[in-house]
Design brief:
Blueprint: H1 2-6, H2 15-41, H3 53-83, H4 97-108, H5 117-161
Helix pairs in contact: 2-3, 3-4, 3-5
GO cellular component, one term: mitochondrial membrane
Main location: mitochondrion
GO biological process, one term: fumarate transport
Amino acid sequence: MIIRDEGILGLWSGAAPTVMRNGTNQAAMFTAKNAFDVLLWKKHEGDGRVLLPWQSMISGFLAGTASPVCTGPFDVVKTRLMAQSRGVDGQMKYKGMIHAIRTIYAEEGLLALWKGLLPRLMRIPPGQAIVWTVADQVIGLYERLAAWQESMRLVWSYMLYGPSNSA
């Protein structure tokens, strides 16, 4: 039905804003998480510290709030492009991502590009709080295991080869 109505390229309707949304989402999420870790807990990437679960949860929740705010326009455009159908004149309302942004802005105003933000804010931040809590604890476990392995390597090297070859 899509191929018949829109042609083969109709299968990729909304692909450009989806890529933009996902790329922006990941950039915003990781940047915000690291920024909140530093700002709130003085935790820097690679410093060997592991946040307490409740600290990770707060940073993750706040990062989960930042990403939908940054990606809202791409999400609205993606949804509009994917859901549109031909009008009575046989034409599509939106010709592409840029045209959709301009049309939505001109017809509905700037805030229309963030329609649906509240439901996204009700869903994404709690999920990211859980994801980052688990991720930080798993990374901390891995880092502690790696440090333990290195210490065991040094102990065995010392025991087998003596103090001169243990490094």
